Amino acid sequence: MEASLPRSKYEEDVFINNHTSVWGSWWKDHQWGYKCCKQTIRNSYCTGSAGIEATEAAADLMRANITRKEAAEEMPAPVEEKRLATWGTEVPDDLVLDEKKLSESLKKEDERRREEKDERKRKYNVKWNDEVTAEDMEAYRMKRIHHDDPMKDFLN
Ligand SMILES: [Zn+2]
């Protein structure tokens, strides 16, 4: 009696390509697959548990990459940070600058920058550790915009 029955009346119940489960025994991301190896390619050969591990490792890697990408996107761009520091709130609104002092400070700042380029001189240059006036700070800020700001080409 049993022998006369077909092994299966459904085509899906026939194991193919070494799979130990039938096509359609697994469902993921709107795709049918094989439960034995979690593959969604019908013509694929069974890769068993090794295939499952490989698939999960790939998924882990993808999740790690997404997390890393999201973290990178949350970080402010370095250019924005620098511009905030340049025009940010570090200078009080009621700051009154002496124009004469400022022009002197600008000259000193120019000089300092020239000397900074000269490694030999800079080693012995200690005078800038002494006293920094508001004008010196402003001169530094102004020069920094002109010399270091990556957006300077757009400003000029
Ligand atoms: Zn399989």
From TrEMBL:
One of its GO terms (biological process) is mRNA splicing, via spliceosome. Residues 98-121 have a biased composition (Basic and acidic residues). One of its GO terms (cellular component) is spliceosomal complex. GO terms for molecular function: pre-mRNA 3'-splice site binding. It holds the Pfam family Slu7. The keyword Transcription regulation does not apply. Residues 98-127 are annotated as: Disordered. Keywords: mRNA processing, mRNA splicing, Nucleus, Spliceosome. Associated with the spliceosome. Involved in pre-mRNA splicing. This is Pre-mRNA-splicing factor SLU7. It comes from Cinchona calisaya.
